[in-house]
Design goal:
- The protein folds into 2 domains: 8-241, Spore Coat Polysaccharide Biosynthesis Protein SpsA, Chain A (Alpha-Beta Complex), CATH 3.90.550.10; 245-358, Alpha-Beta Plaits.
- It is 37% helix and 20% strand.
- The termini are close together.
- The protein has 379 residues and is α/β, with parallel strands linked by helices.
- The longest helix is centred in the middle third of the chain and has 18 residues, at 140-157.
Length: 379
């Protein structure tokens, strides 16, 4: 089983979901029984967002027998759904990562719809507002609240999407790592923040119709949560400073033929994860972004590339959101490589001329997340 490469990571954020875990975990297991999810090439990542109940223990007991590649990550304190998904995106090891709400309002059997939509897109989102969607809601105020919020989100951010808040989305993992690193909203309106960034970067977003059934145990508070989400959307619109992304500018100045230089770079990058975004800039230069990485992980990557046997030059940098904008839009390369369509030559040159490591802004640091030992995975 361990020899099979991962094809999909599924992230389920969970905060005090012990009761619903008992009721809804069966849907994840049924999706395996019906063949909609292949557990041998799928990792299921449950992110316990500082729960005070038995969410983590129940997730292990109910899901581990069906998902041998189950991972449970525990955050030290409740930080919000967006923050939990950020942790999951940082841990994802497959080329595609999807997330879904713990209440399973969208049945996991619809995961293949998102995966299929990713063939030609950077991001795929479930939408309850499309013609072929089937929505079952028992509380009219929820419907009104959703439509009002979507109108506000589109008016303020111009994302141009019918439904930003459906908790059923998927990303190419290198793209997800960039977007969730730059995200500044950790709670209910994080979706708008991520989707607005994707639009600004010129990424392709595909909306997918879904069958959605409202959970009768929803934790959404109509009045207070609506106000918080509205304030967050306004914060997104006027937010100027976002965290910088640690990066490595990697090059080879060997005088050999172009094909040799390409081979040298390819060999150097073979040790990177398929989730690390790599921008191929020229035949002898590439920019490796390391979003959602801790400082020790960045230093470790730089040290590996600086080995004398690699014949590479490596410069650590911090890349701002504005600098990434200069390189956009991007197209999809092979594996984890991305091709900068805009400023292919000039943007890297500008990046190297600037002393990026001393530029204004802040760096987001990521602490280690507790992963309880699972006896099934250690065997």
């Amino acid at each position: 089983m361990r020899g099979e490469a991962l094809s999909l990571s599924i992230v389920v954020p969970a905060f005090n979901e012990a009761v619903r875990m008992k009721d809804r975990a069966g849907l994840l297991n049924e999706a395996v029984a019906t063949g909609d999810i292949d557990p041998l090439v799928t990792e299921l990542i449950v992110v316990d967002d500082g729960s005070t109940d038995e969410t983590a223990r129940l997730a292990e007991r109910l899901l581990a027998p069906v998902y041998p590649r189950l991972r449970i990550l525990q955050m030290s304190k409740n930080s919000g759904k967006g923050a939990a998904i950020r942790v999951g995106a940082g841990a994802a090891g497959a080329p595609f990562v999807a997330f879904m709400d713990a209440d399973m309002s969208v049945d996991p059997s619809q995961i293949p719809l998102l995966v299929a939509a990713m063939e030609d897109a950077h991001v795929a989102i479930g939408s309850r507002a499309m013609a072929h969607s089937n929505v079952q809601s028992y509380r009219r105020h929820r419907v009104i609240m959703g439509r009002t919020f979507s109108f506000l989100a589109n008016a303020v951010t111009n994302v141009g999407l019918k439904d930003t808040q459906c908790g059923f989305k998927a990303f190419r993992t290198p793209v997800a790592r960039i977007l969730f690193h730059l995200m500044v909203i950790d709670r209910f309106a994080f979706d708008v923040d991520v989707l607005m960034l994707a639009r600004q970067f010129g990424m392709e977003i595909c909306e997918v119709p879904v069958e959605w059934e409202e959970s009768d145990s929803s934790t959404v508070r109509p009045l207070s949560d609506s106000m918080s989400m509205a304030i967050d959307v306004l914060r997104i619109r006027w937010r100027k400073n976002r965290p910088h992304i640690p990066a490595l500018m990697v090059g080879t100045d060997a005088p050999e033929h172009e094909s040799v230089r390409k081979r040298v770079l390819n060999e150097a990058f073979s040790g990177f994860r398929q989730t690390d975004p790599i921008f191929r800039l020229t035949e002898n230069r590439a920019l490796v972004l390391l979003p959602l990485c801790r400082p020790d992980q960045v230093e470790g990557a730089a040290a590996r590339l600086r080995q004398p046997s690699t014949n590479l030059t490596v410069r650590r940098q911090l890349i701002s959101c504005d600098q990434l904008m200069e390189m956009m839009p991007i197209t999809l390369g092979t594996g984890n490589s991305l091709i900068a369509a805009g400023g292919r030559e000039s943007a890297p040159a500008r990046s190297e001329r600037r002393d990026v490591s001393r530029s204004a802004g802040h760096v987001r640091h990521f602490p280690r997340v507790t992963a309880p030992p699972l006896s099934r995975l250690e065997a």
